[in-house]
Amino acid sequence: MPASHSFRSLLPVLILLVLLALVPLLSPSNRFVSLAISAGINVIALYGLSVLFGQTGILSMGHAALVGIGAYTAAILARDFNIGFWLSIPLAGIMAAIVAALIGIPSLRVSGHHFVIMTFAFGQLLAIILTNGGDYTGAASGLDVQQPVALFGLSIDVLTHYYLTVVFFVALSAIASWAIINSRYGRTLRAIRENEKLAASLGINVGRHKIGAFIVSGVFAGVSGVLLAYFLRHISPSQFSSFPSIYLALMVMIGGARLLLGPLAGGILVAFLPELLNLDPVQSRILYGVCLIAVILLLPNGLIAGIIAGWHKMFDRRAAQPSEPAVEREGK
Amino acid sequence: MKSVLLRGAVVALFLGAVAYPALAQDAADTIKIGVVAAESGAFVSAGHTLPAGVGLAVKEINDEGGIKVGDKTYKLELLKRDDRTDISTAIAATQELVRDEKVAAIFGSETHDFTLAMAKITQPAKVLHFAGNSTLAKVLTDSSVASGGEDHYLFQTEPQEFQRSGSTARGVLKLLEPLVGHPLKKSVLIVGNDATGQFLSSYYLAALKSEGQEVPDIIFYPPDTTDFSPFLTRAKSLKPDVVHFWYNGDSTLTALPQALELGVAPSYFLFGVDPGIWKEQGLSADVPVAMSCVPVCWGESSNPKAKAYFDAYFAAGAPKGVTSSVSLLYYDYVHFLAEAWEKAGSLDPDKTVEALKTLHHKGVVSDDLAFNATHQVTHATEVCAAAPGGDITCAMQEPPADAPKQ
Predict the structure, then answer these.
(1) How far is Cα B270 from Cα A270, in angstroms, rounded to an integer?
(2) Residues in domain Leucine-binding protein (chain B) (predicted)?
(3) Cys-Cys link to A67, which of A225, A312, B250, B356 (CB 3.0-4.6 A)?
(4) Nearest residue of chain A to residue B93 (CA atoms)
(5) B263 within some domain
(6) What value of ipTM does the predicted structure carry?
């Protein structure tokens, strides 16, 4: 596959992100910018989850806990070592990756539903550990993050500056995800996803690669956690328990985990639908449930893949043939 | 036709020119205040009381002609925002109220975590922020509330936890003992295991011990528990004189019937359950049950002002709930703030803070509401007890002067 061909799958994401980076020029409300930042932070974690779920076929229901590892790492580094935002990003990514490895090694000895349950249990366990961590983790009350965020001496604590920072990290995540998908490693992961036994028979170390995918997704989650901690300036265990994990899984399933636009679409939809339709949490959950069932039944590769397929059917001569995006064709 | 359009345009321009200063005047003579609370989602029970309480106070102030600050009279405009029990929404709502709407003050939220994150937005913007979270004691210190400190504009509208726990423990034991008929010596706490539960129970434990209680165990249950039997069985094995259910009123109402069926103790205490709910739900028990309200009860009260307040509160459309009284942690402080603005003669936040710190306000909860040096109030808490026959007795219990020694 020529590089230019695979780059086509990244191009729409980059164009969309450039457009999103221009949003502050339209003077949006601060409420909108704030929600967009929250959505962007989720999207970064979703790119990690898409590597795990979309490419490897492993669903984690404890991913918010890895985001929490990143957030708490950032808060503790700032408090105890005076380490600021920029250095926290790689350190929290590494810490979340280490924790992902520690969970992945025992958890990935099982597969399918059992793995989902184990990751869910990990999420619950982390909340309990943080809640009972005394002054070190701030117990149930959590921790404050006091360090300012600056770039070349310019404060990026201003909401729009922070928004642009998050867009930048979303772009980095999308590029990293694209690079993984189009690498030999990505092809190996897809081989495992499609047929584990066949992949093993070809000499692929399935267990090691699955743990590797979990570790990679942990890095994304860790970075997302740092951005969250510095955005909210106060974190607590309840933000990283089971419900946020379920929401992350929901977002990636609705948007679609196999296409680069999927996590972006899922994150934005779930963040803004209640706002646009003025839904309360109960109505939102009903809507998400209906969307999830509809996606599973009608658009098994997610909303974006469904829209692309629909587009081809309506306007493209290729409609007669089943169409797959570049990365999918490449993966098979 | 052309002349008709022309005349119409002239009239419209004239009316616009006349109306614009009036509209501008209206906007200038209005003080915006915001409420961020869970009007939907998991914390709706306490959350809906905030806009209801603040809304009632705003209506009363406006109906009385507004607030006279210096030479000008201002009306209040209330901007309510539902945080959907979601921290991202709470933050977005706060950003909107502070930066877009330019509110002078914010009330809420009822959730400790949300309030702390919201304060990171309100405080740098010099927006006065009132929240009824006793857990704010963790951040309200002499240095943080000092001029230029990071929480200079943040006020805690609920007493410090040692005070509320002290009032409650003393009141519960005082009311239950004559009903049980023998001295109460041993207490067991059953507590929701979340941020608030952990924080509150540590103080209540100290308060019970300072009242001479032996407390062999605190039993934590996960939030959203519906089957309490494992926790109740454990409590029963400790042979307590009183089982104290702390702190979620909704969970407590689920746990109590199970406790009565298992015969866990000769008496119970339900934190945050109003006698009004006890009566409305037709609850009964064959043993004495104490209840406490945050801070004054609506179903039965010894506070002379409570009836008038709650009549107006419910007449305004607020539902009768387990935690309706939480509204009083906000209602009084809208009036208090209005008085501070009048006293300061200015809307300047620094002058208002100074006024708030020196004022003694006559509210519903107390005739002498005042903030201490670390921006926290002190007042009594109401405790009631239902006798097995159904009679309910209530008493306002004053807080202890000092925190018990650990």
Answers:
(1) 38
(2) 30-382
(3) A225
(4) A31
(5) yes
(6) 0.86
